[in-house]
Design brief:
By secondary structure, the protein is α/β, with parallel strands linked by helices. The chain is built from 13 helices and 6 strands. Helix 7 runs antiparallel to helix 8. InterPro entries: Cro/C1-type_HTH, DUF5753, Lambda_DNA-bd_dom_sf.
Length: 267
């Protein structure tokens, strides 16, 4: 039985089922009894063993430590939990490069933009997590396949000056990042899609379940409604059909790097 089926039968959210499965939350006795009934468990020894597990301390990922939990959005922590179990992750970005592939210098300049909304401590925590996360997620025995599609405007939008941007663009090339990441560019000519585009991430769990992450200027959300997931899977296919191939994207990025290097040489 998949997470989605369990959530549907018990009228729980997929997020709740996921948090229980990975040990992020302690299962209440009421929830345990509901699960036992669902799976038709009536062996008394098994029930007692499971009840004991409910009383034991829950396991947490390093990102869920108190030092981070107090400084990160709950949605961010929950998203990381889903990502750590994912089979495939697709994300589309129209403003900045995603955190999983940001260099430290680029990330520092991006986070500086939020100085009015985030304290120094919060920005430092986000930077620390961002740098640790990319190492963590791709060092697992079975790391997810991560497909990143970025709007071409990001490639040409200079953040932090030419030196920072050159380092960041080189990170996008196949030689600069983990082999489980594919970077593809959505050409500027595809304006029809961009008219309605907003950053999103679709995390596929490998068992038919998925979770959608959407973000805007000051808010973000996780969505597991089947109809919404279905629609975004269609959007993913549309984006992939429109984006440049990995190879063509790399050539475009290399050309941008060359242009920036040339501009520095002329100064």
């Amino acid at each position: 039985m998949t997470q989605g089926e369990v959530a549907s039968k018990l009228e729980w959210s997929l997020s709740k089922v996921n948090r229980i499965e990975i040990g992020d939350v302690t299962v209440s006795n009421t929830d345990l009894q509901a699960l036992l009934r669902l799976f038709e468990v009536d062996d008394q020894n098994a029930i007692e063993t499971l009840s004991g597990h409910c009383r034991s301390a829950r396991q947490r990922g390093w990102w869920d430590e108190p030092a981070y939990r107090s400084l990160l959005r709950p949605t961010t922590i929950e998203l990381m939990q889903f990502q750590s179990q994912a089979a495939t992750i697709f994300s589309f970005h129209s403003a900045i490069f995603p955190g999983v592939i940001q260099t430290r210098a680029y990330a520092e300049h991006v986070l500086a933009f939020w100085a009015g909304e985030l304290s120094d401590e919060e920005r430092a925590a986000r930077l620390d997590v961002r740098m640790k996360w990319r190492t963590h997620v791709f060092s697992q025995p079975r790391p997810p396949r991560h497909v990143l599609v970025v709007d071409e405007s990001i490639v040409g939008r200079e953040v932090g000056g030419p030196h920072v941007m050159i380092g960041q663009l080189r990170e996008l090339l196949p030689s600069g990042h983990d082999p489980n990441i594919d970077v593809r560019v959505l050409p500027l000519r595809e304006t029809a899609f961009l008219a309605a585009a907003a950053p999103f991430m679709l995390v596929e769990m490998g068992d038919g379940d998925a979770i959608l992450y959407r973000e805007s200027y000051l808010s973000d959300e996780l969505v597991d409604h089947p109809a919404v997931i279905k629609r975004y899977r269609e959007v993913v296919e549309q984006v992939l059909d429109t984006a440049l191939s990995v190879e063509a994207s790399a050539r475009l990025i290399e050309a941008c790097v060359a242009a920036l290097v040339s501009s520095l040489d002329r100064r």
